[in-house]
Design a protein that fits this description.
The chain is an alpha/beta fold. It is built from 11 helices and 8 strands. It has 2 domains: about 180 residues, Rossmann fold (3-Layer(aba) Sandwich); about 130 residues, Rossmann fold. Helix 5 links the parallel strand 3 and strand 4. The longest helix has 27 residues. The protein starts with about 20 loop residues before the first strand and ends in an 8-residue tail after the last helix.
């Protein structure tokens, strides 16, 4: 045992101080550039697009293309898109702002449940704050156990798995490794489905006319990944079905699509940007679009869905396009995330302690 100074009983005077034991809960999101200038964007995109989980082309073929061609141009266009959505008041991207708000809300819930035995923080897979820096901070604060929570409802190699890779790599650098758990996908958790349903009901209640269709747009991936065993596609389809059943809607009222196609390889279909245009040409004048795979609004939702995809629909003859925001720090979403965390903390902590 140690006293309040961290000194162990019966230990010599020069023994290093020992922090009171804690359990860490480390939330992880995809990442964000530090700013939207060229060099900030280039650093961020280079780290992201060099990840083998994201682009699995051999380095000898991919890196020259990435470093000499893609990263000479793309930082300008991506930076311009980030500038459109940037939180200029706080000097950060919306993803950073929202992740901070989610972390604060979850920390408050867990403090009420477990007291000061649980430490809550967040990290980013790409950019700052890095996973390694936050693991180091938790170990230094006395966390002998860490629950690592990638904030992706669905499992995918390019999201959940690469976040876990970074976590395991960070643990490998620790002299005294904490016990570790990773939170699995939670796409069918009843409270997550409930939070999605409530967001749809709120959005629809605020509209003068009901949309003809609800588009559930999920981040895409190469079709090859599905054929190689990645469960993401099937989990997305199940989320749409569970949401429809919770809403009490008929089949066909929710359409599942995939966005953010990159490169020449075939990706999961239908592509959102093309499909909404086809719907408009078929006479669907009013649609709503949501992004269930994202736990927080980001460049792919605020700029791609509410910009490029909206424009595609309206240009093809659509009349009313409604974007339903991500769950962000809505109370029902925090309920769901806190419940998932509680499930995964079992045996490590007890309520009221």
């Amino acid at each position: 045992m140690s006293d309040r100074t961290g000194r162990l009983a019966h230990a010599p005077a020069d023994h290093p101080a020992v922090k009171p034991a804690k359990v860490g809960v480390l939330l992880a999101n995809l990442g964000t550039p530090d700013n939207y200038d060229y060099w900030s964007m280039r650093r961020y995109l280079s780290e992201f697009l060099s990840d083998k989980r994201v682009i699995d082309i051999p380095d000898w073929k991919w890196q020259p293309l990435l470093q000499l061609i893609i990263l000479t141009k793309r930082p300008f266009t991506s930076g311009a898109n980030y500038k459109l959505i940037w939180n200029h008041d706080k000097g950060e991207s919306p993803l950073m702002t929202i992740t901070k708000d989610q972390t604060a809300a979850i920390a408050a819930r867990l403090a009420a449940e477990y007291g000061d035995t649980v430490m809550v923080d967040f990290c980013m897979r790409y950019g700052n704050p890095s996973t390694a820096s936050k693991v180091r901070a938790m170990v230094a604060a006395g966390c002998e156990k860490i629950l690592f929570f990638p904030l992706y409802p669905h499992y995918a190699g390019a999201t959940s798995a690469t976040a876990n890779d970074a976590f395991f790599a960070a643990l490998a650098k620790e002299k005294r490794q904490p016990a570790a758990r990773t939170v699995p996908e939670y796409f069918e958790h009843p409270l997550y489905i409930e939070a999605l349903a409530q967001s749809v009901e709120r959005a629809y209640a605020a509209l003068p006319q009901r949309p003809d269709l609800l588009i559930a747009s999920y981040h895409g991936m190469p079709k090859r990944y599905l054929m190689e065993g990645d469960p993401y596609h099937c989990q997305c389809q199940k989320t749409s079905r569970l949401l429809r059943e919770r809403l009490g809607w008929d089949k066909g009222e929710i359409v599942t699509t995939f966005q953010s196609v990159f490169g020449r390889e075939e990706w999961l279909r239908p592509y959102t940007v093309e499909h909404v245009a086809e719907l408009a040409r078929q006479g669907k004048k009013r649609i709503a679009v949501m992004a269930p795979a994202f736990s927080a609004d980001c460049i792919e939702t605020l700029e791609e869905i509410n910009g490029e995809i909206r424009e595609s629909f309206l240009h093809a003859g659509g009349e009313e396009f409604t974007y339903i925001p991500c769950l962000n720090d809505e109370a029902a979403h925090i309920d769901a995330l806190t419940a998932v965390i509680g499930d995964n903390l079992q045996g490590w902590v007890q309520a009221g302690r």
